[in-house]
Automatic annotation (TrEMBL):
Protein's UniProt keywords contain Thylakoid: no
Domain of life assignment: Bacteria
Gene3D superfamilies documented for this protein: Cytochrome c-like domain (1.10.760.10)
Transmembrane intervals: 29-49
Keyword annotations: Membrane, Transmembrane, Transmembrane helix
Annotated protein name in UniProt: Monoheme cytochrome C
Taxonomic lineage: Bacteria, Pseudomonadati, Bacteroidota, Cytophagia, Cytophagales
Organism: Algoriphagus aquimarinus
Molecular function terms, GO-annotated: electron transfer activity; heme binding
Amino acid sequence: MHMNNLPNNNPKTSDKENYQLFNGLIKSVAGLVGVVVLLAGLVLSLVFLPEISTRLNSTSAELSSASPEPLADFSTEVVDGKDVETGLIAGNGLELVKANCTACHSSALILQNRFTREGWHSKIVWMQETQGLWDLGGNEAIILDYLAENYAPEESHGRRIPLTGIDWYELKD
Ligand code: HEC
């Protein structure tokens, strides 16, 4: 930088000083703009932070309120004594049967079969030994009770039990 203590009447020098002045002005304006932008950002983030966080909260609230839905899917809607989803007879243990016995195959395999409790047990053991069915733990007894009660073999001996409570109607010509 060329410093000159003499009175400045040299047009070249004053040009240079003008330039320096201009340059300094530009720099300070740029600096000022930078500061303003920073401040604006700060203010905006302070203003919108609560809103953003409430939005995030509401989103997570929506998510957590949405999460019971798959469970609701699993809950049982019973029409005419049968679970709408699987066709299984409504009864104690239905939920456990749905949870454990319709994971690999449909409920059809249950619906089309009739076994005694021992028969059902041996099917379960067979599936455990050959098909990767898991240990049913304490639920096994409940599941077996359900199956034995609702999918028991029909009486195969003798005559069927007489029908009761029938509303006979007259045939008309
Ligand atoms: C880990 C998978 C799996 C699970 C869980 C499972 N099964 Fe099975 N199950 C099978 C397979 C595989 C077969 C053979 C399917 C075939 O023959 O097409 C089968 C067949 C059956 C059959 C027909 C057996 C036969 O002799 O024809 C019945 C009844 C049955 N399962 C009932 C159940 C019951 C009740 C449960 C719940 C306790 C259950 N399954 C859970 C895999 C499973």
